[in-house]
Design a protein that fits this description.
The chain is α/β, with parallel strands linked by helices. Helices cover 36% and strands 27% of the residues. It starts with a strand and ends in a 14-residue tail after the last strand.
Amino acid sequence: MAPKFVLIGGFLGAGKSTTVARLAAHYSEKRKRVGIVTNDQTTGLVDTQSLRHQGFDVGEVAGACFCCSFNELTDTVDQMQKGQLPDVILAEPVGSCTDLVATVIRPLENIYAQPLDIAPYGVVLKPSHGLRILTGKKKAGFSPKAAYIFRKQIEESDFVVINRIDELAQEEVDSLAEAIESEYPGRTILRMSAKTGIGFDAYLEFLDQQGQFGGRVIEVDYDLYAEGEAELGWLNSQLKFASETEFSLDEILLRFVSELQEQFKESEAEVAHLKVIGMSDGNYAVANSVSTFTEPVLSLASKCSTKRADLVVNARVATEPSILEEAVVKRIQTLAGSLGASVVTDTMQSFKPSPPVPTHRIAAS
């Protein structure tokens, strides 16, 4: 039987990684071999570390989106499970990418030598920005160019998953569903919380459907697409945090993300996603923020007190990379100073994504 291939689309901060983790746990419980492929514009991805700490087999495609690194995607799949392909492959593309039907799904069907059972293509929707973008609010959080990518992701999907419904009032969920139906009539809309599992069974049922899916090849203005991506500053960093006295790993991560978000709020730089994982002696915790106007959360708690921790920081913010890097350095040093701790930077990469140049693009059926 051909491996099942599930591509989980959605904008930065939509909850794709939490969705991937829940899917992986589900299929593993069914005694399926599961492989996960994460994706980023550079190395040092929080999601990869988090998923590996949860015990999953994870390969990482770094340097560009799946569409621009198609051969790296297929090579990563081939290398999984020591030559024995998994029963289920979960692939999470970069959250600022679109046009994945033409540049990933169709090439997998027509070029990749290994037969795959490709699941319906679903996009996990980020409510915090979705409500603003799709209802036409003036302060939508992002410029029209970045919102263009958000809309195109929905346009090419087989179905849309409104995620994080546990964080929303019922009227907000209904309003968002109505906005999607109005702009994308006939699109199947699911409601889910990847965190709590609400609505997860319906999501699984849709993924298990057979039929003609992945057929919505969209028209994309690649210049506008590139400009939208380039409005985001990108930062990945690996740090060592050490103190003479014990500190709560959970508390320092949440404090760091909260203070960093507040700094961006003051400068009116919109947050697409802030995420940090802290690791210490087999314990790990994750804190994140998905927008400037929502509260940061501790998405994975360690309940660990320690004197040393390795931190991986991923930040995607609508600002210049130099400003982003300066803010991250300032906040982590301020935090360390307040605790009498030291910080050593192992890696620090900040940049704007390069224009997307797909390896393949198959528009015709």
